[in-house]
Amino acid sequence: MIPLVLSCHPSDAAAGRGAFAAAELERAGLSVRLDARPMDVAARFWPPLKSMISNKLRAQAWAALITDTVSLDNVAVETLGYAASGAKGTRGQEFALIALRPGSAAVAMPGAFAAMQQIAMGEPTWARSVRGLAEGRGLARGQGTGLGGSIGEPYSITLHHRVPSGGRSVSAIELRPLTSSWLQFFVAVPWSEVGQAQLRLVHGLRGTLPEPHCEPAEAASPQPEREGEWAVLRGPEPASRRESYFLFCDAIPTTVRFGVPDGHLQYTVRLRPV
After folding, report:
1. At a CB cut-off of 8 Å and minimum separation 6, what does 124 contact?
2. Residue 182 burial class via C-beta count within 10 angstroms: exposed 0-12, middle 13-18, buried 19 and up
3. What is this structure's pTM?
4. 223 vs 50, 197, 219, 226, 233, CA distance in Å?
5. Which of 62, 148, 185, 223 is least surrounded by Cβ atoms within 10 Å, i.e. has the fewest?
6. Phi/psi at 88 (5° precision)
7. Do residues 178 and 156 make contact, with C-beta atoms less than 8 angstroms apart?
8. Residue 45, SS3 per DSSP
């Protein structure tokens, strides 16, 4: 597998957003080392990262998860910008520096990351594009077009994160089929994680976090029902290539099951380590 170092803000690690990105990248054939150290002092952050990426057998690329949390933290922006300059000087121009942007980001990408290749995690091919950059092949076919699954699956699963102006951090997992339509929908997470995740299920257009629900307190959603070890939420509206379900969650669940209730189109995906 192709080695890659992925840096994320400690708060993104605590909410599972860093682990979600790492899990998707590993499904695309990358061996990911997740670096969730504090980004408060550039001179302290860079030396350990330099050690991680100096040997090409340990890292063929460096990626940073640039959530709104990072973009709003001037110190974190300065720290990662400093690290990007150091990485380019250490490994040269051919070394891939990648800025990963979750869907629905509300804050513009800081100029400090201009030297990094920006990858939108709302694109179904984003994980394959990261692998292509790590291998020196460039973006995956379909990047920027919304075509194809991230890892050849018949569904799309996307991380959204934003910090609305004057609001609190919002995370959601978007789920939809890539080809067929699901006339009914369900999603389930481990029952033991319901209290931590604070789940809400909302139907909306593909790729766009439903605006009325950007503040979690406003999100009207059915309560999860317990079925064995799973907490299940159901949606009566269809899911299709154009319409998705958004699972709002304070913390990313370790695993999701989703698809059509009482049908064969059901999928189980590990989103982060237990």
Report:
1. 142, 146, 147, 148, 149, 150, 156, 158, 178
2. buried
3. 0.87
4. 47, 13, 12, 10, 7
5. 223
6. -65, -40
7. yes
8. helix
- How far is it, in rounded angstroms, from Cα 247 to Cα 85? 37
Residue 159: helix, strand or coil by DSSP? strand
Instruction: List, for residues 153-188, the tens digit of each pLDDT value.
Output: 899 999 999 987 667 788 999 999 998 899 999 999
Question: Which residue stretches of the chain have pLDDT < 50?
Answer: 142-150, 212-219
pLDDT of residue 144: 38
Q: Closest Cα partner for 248 from 14, 19, 8, 15?
A: 15
| Per-residue DSSP letter, 223 | P
Report the DSSP beta bridge partners of residue 190: 230
11-31 pLDDT per residue, tens: 999 999 999 999 999 999 999
* Cβ-based neighbours of 266, under 8 Å, separated by 6 or more: 257, 258, 259, 260
User: Minimal CA–CA distance to 130: which of 48, 28, 250, 242?
Assistant: 28
Residue 182 DSSP symbol:
B
- The conformation of residue 100, written as its DSSP 8-state character, comes to E
For residue 146, count CB atoms less than 10 angstroms from its CB and return exposed for 0-12, middle for 13-18, buried for 19 or more: middle
Question: How far apart are alpha carbons 109 and 121 in whole angstroms?
Answer: 14
pLDDT of residue 219: 46
Report d(CA 203, CA 246) in Å as an integer.
Answer: 6
Largest CA distance in the chain: 55
